[in-house]
Input
Amino acid sequence: MTSAKLIDGKAHAAAIRQEVSRVAGEWASHHGRPVGLDVILVGDDPASQVYVGSKERQAAAAGLRGKVHRLPRDTQQEALEALIAALNADSNVDGILLQLPLPPHLDAAHAVGCIAPGKDVDGLSTTNAGALVLGLPGLFPCTPSGIIELLKREDVALRGARALVIGRSTLVGLPVARMLTHCDATVTLAHSKSRDLQALALEADVLIVAAGKRHLVPGKWIKPGSVVIDVGIHRDADGALAGDVVFDEAVGRAALLTPVPGGVGPMTIAMLLSNTLKAAHLRAGVIESTSPRTH
Ligand code: NAP
Output
C-alpha cells in the first residue's frame, strides 16, 4: 500500500512568518513605524483568549506591533463600534481583527461591517467578499488563503484539476471554492444537502473538507493519488485532535494529505500576519489596486 506524503503546515507557516518578518522589517525602516495589527477581544471565552494570545505573540515575533484590546463581557455595541471607528482613523493601525464569537448580546455582522475594508484582515466584510468573487485585489479570509498557499507551496497543479470542497461557510468553504476557481480548477461546492458525496469525492483530484463533522470522509471516498486537505478540528475525550477525514484510511489512498493537527491549522495565523502586511501595502498604494484577479 502506498502512503501519502504529509503536508507539513508548521514548516510552511514558519517559512511564511519568516518572509513576513523580513518584509515587515523593510516596511518599518521605510515608514518609521512597525506594521500594526489591532485585535479586539470582548469577554473571556477561553478558546478566544488562547487564539488572541497566539496572534499577539506571533505578531510580535514577526516584528509587527500587535495590540490586543480586551473589552469586558458586558461591552455595549456602541462602545465596540466606537473603538473600531477610532482604529479605522488611526494611521498607525494597518489591520483590525474582531475576535469571534462575540457575546450573544452583540451584533457581530454589524460590528464587522464597521471595520474599514482596507483594514479588514479577516476578509469578512462585504467589500472584501465582493472583491474575492470578482477577482479584484482585497483582503481575504485567512484559513482559505492558507489552504491555497499550502497547495501552491506543495506545487499542486490546480489548472484544470477537479476540486471538491465540502462545506460552504463564509469563513472557509465558500471563499476557498472561489479561490480554487481563480486558480483554474473545476470546482464543486458541496454541503449538508448534497447527494452522494462519496461519488463526488471519488472524482476529486483535490478534496478540501471543511464540514466540521468528525471523520465524515472515510478512506473509500478518496480518489487514489489525490490531494486531501482536512480543515476540521475536533478534540476527542482523551484530548487528542481529529479531523473531518479518517486520517489512518486516507493515508493509504491520497498522494498528499494534511495531518490534524499540524496541517491547515498553523497556516491561519501566518496568513493573518501576511494579510496585515498586505493591508499596509495596499493602503500605501504599493500594491496596484486595479490589477485583476488575486487570491
Ligand atoms: P461551519 O460554519 O459549521 O460550516 C460547515 C459547513 O459544512 C456547512 O456549509 C455545512 O452545510 C457543511 N456540512 C455540515 N455537515 C455536513 C455533511 N454531513 N455533509 C456535507 N456538508 C456538511 O464550519 P466552518 O467554520 O466552515 O468550519 C469547518 C471546520 O473547520 C470545523 O471543524 C472548524 O473547527 C474547522 N476550522 C479550522 C480552522 C483552522 O484554522 N484549521 C479554521 C476555521 C475552521 P450547510 O451549509 O448545508 O449547513
